[in-house]
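Q: Make up one entry.
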Amino acid sequence: MHFLSQVAAVALAITSAAAVGRHTPRRGSPLPPLPTYTYGTAFGGALDMPIPTTPPDVNSAKALGAAELTVHLVNSYGTPLKISYNSNLGSPTILGNPGAGIIAQSTDIVVPRDFAGAIFVGETYDPANSKIEFSFSPPQGYRPGLDVSYVDGFSVPLVCSCSGVAVTGCNINLFTQAQCPNQRWGPCYNPKKSVPDGPADPFFAPCQGSAYTYPNDHLANAFGKCDAGDIQCCIGVSDTQHLSYFSQASMLKLCS
């Protein structure tokens, strides 16, 4: 299991978004400071790509035609949300090294080669928020690694696509499906965070296999499905149906 470090936050422009249902955070005692939290990560997920100790393979990078990787994040949740990020120890930072911010409509997050880290999104700043784990590293020719992870917890639905085809994530608002077994301030903490082979807790079960719901939930791993240097991710639920596996049409509707 990886342990993420170098906690930072992403600066974003504030605009409006179309209204959909959302969860109201439960009020209570504040969380401990973020540096004391041990992050859970999907085993074999996007952050298991090793940070290279040798110079990058320039020929492999050129073969994929991308020196940078862009994550275009769209907020279809219906309210402005908090966003933060981590990068692995030894990884370069997000370009521009942005600071704390709010996402209300959309933002682009651009990372250089050899990046590995995660984006956290929720109604509060919390290390158990829903997250996008991604990397842009060797050894396999700078092919982007990508997954949506609820291993630490769930705050908002997340789905990611490459070239218009959804490849990882789950657009079900789990707070509307079952009672959270462990909610403190905002997100639902995942009781299976340290149970490598699951199965998913009943609260998280509707998204099993689409987003990581326990560390070895590998059907949610999108490695090898994103050869382009551009990824689109959406926050929110479909207005017409809940889907755990996504078609291109449902993804485009969610992001519109």
Observations:
- The first helix runs from residue 58 to 64.
